[in-house]
Amino acid sequence: MRYTIALLLCTAPLFAADAGKSAEAIKQLKAAVDAKPKAIAELTDQPFASVPLTKADAAEARRILWGLHTDLIKKDRADEVKAKVLKDDKLEMPFEYKTFGKKPKGGWSLWISLHGGGGAPAKVNDQQWENQKRLYQPEEGIYLAPRAPTNTWNLWHEAHIDRLFTRLIEDLIVLEGVNPNRVYVMGYSAGGDGVYQIAPRMADHWAAAAMMAGHPNGVSLLSLRNVPFALQVGGKDAAYNRNSVAKEYGDTLAKYRKDDPSGYEQFVKIHEGKGHWMELEDKAALPWMAKFTRDPAPAKVVWKQTGTPHDRSYWLAVPAKEAKVDSLVVATRDKQSVEVTTAEKVETLIVRFDDRFADLDKPVTVTHAGKQVYTGVASRTVAVMAKTLAGRGDPELVFDAEVQVKLK
């Protein structure tokens, strides 16, 4: 009965966007942008933002919003990139970067490389940062080594890291021409600890990830379904049982791959005879990672919330106040249909669409546990585009439409 009620509440009328009203909404959007708003989010509550758009007008809206976003980043963020320091309240994250190879047509790859150290005096972490700056050399791309804002044991997986890395990527897409679908993260020792944590919880940011000589601290890797993951540890690296735990996690990834052959790409190697320092044999991860490009709208998403919860992952989202650790959503999409096969600790789910993978001039359907919880039109609107652009600054994760369904 509860699913019947949800269907009645969520079903939208079947109608196509009115071309005249759509054109007028674009006209008003242009006027609002000409008024120079201070943030993209200011546009979401404007009356024109909820007007259904035609496919052509939606494409124009995307162009206008991205232009506004790039103007704001250039105006507000150029100084922090020039200074090579990002701030989060009272915390600061300095970084250094250099480029390798020739810039591809689609933009630079970005390699974020996390230093070791952890719970130690600042001078120890400073030295580890210096080492990390020159530790690896990709064939192409921007190699960037940040200095952790703290000197805690979990220096790379405290909540502020998610915010800082999101901002860093957002800045460099605009200011350095980074390809948002080719952003990689890697780390050594305590940096490897961080990769174990932030690779799954920030899964939709990464083209691939590489963990070197770290410890997972019990984290789930389920969310790595669409993130190729390299895992390397020295066979003699027995501190904190890094070697034995790495083997266990490698076995877990292999099982995930066996059960889901289209996901969980992996490169797992225990370097026999090596201790905590693998003598750079782990650099084999870089050319392996470079083979992969992120799919921003994969056909299947596994979203297991760990550590610091987020309100979105790929084309799925939850209301910000309902984002919680240990929740799990597994969903697949096929053109007009989305099937939610698993929903644990999730009451309200937001499913996002655009014309890359669905015909939004036709109805869409969402099912959960074999029962239909939504059927109807998912209207393209400025509000959804602006909302999905705000706070991420990723043009590939801007969606045209969304529907909200109750799963409990």
Describe how the helices and strands are arranged:
Layout lengths: L1 H9 L8 H16 L20 H22 L1 H6 L1 E4 L2 E10 L7 E7 L7 H12 L7 E6 L12 H17 L2 E11 L1 H12 L6 E5 L16 E6 L7 H18 L6 E6 L13 H6 L9 E5 L7 E2 L2 E2 L10 E7 L2 E8 L3 E6 L10 E5 L2 E6 L5 H8 L11 E6 L2
Parallel strand pairs: 3-4, 3-5, 5-6, 6-7, 7-8, 13-15
Antiparallel strand pairs: 1-2, 2-4, 9-12, 10-11, 11-14, 12-13, 14-17, 15-16
Helix pairs in contact: 2-3, 3-10
Could you explain how this protein is built, in words?
- With 408 residues, this protein is α/β, with parallel strands linked by helices.
- It has two domains: 185 residues, no CATH class; 212 residues, 3-Layer(aba) Sandwich (Rossmann fold), CATH 3.40.50.1820.
- The chain is 31% helix and 25% strand.
- The strands form three sheets. It has an eight-stranded mixed sheet with strand order 1-2-4-3-5-6-7-8, with helices on both faces.
- The protein is globular and about 70 Å long.
- It starts with a helix and ends with a strand.
- The N terminus is likely disordered.
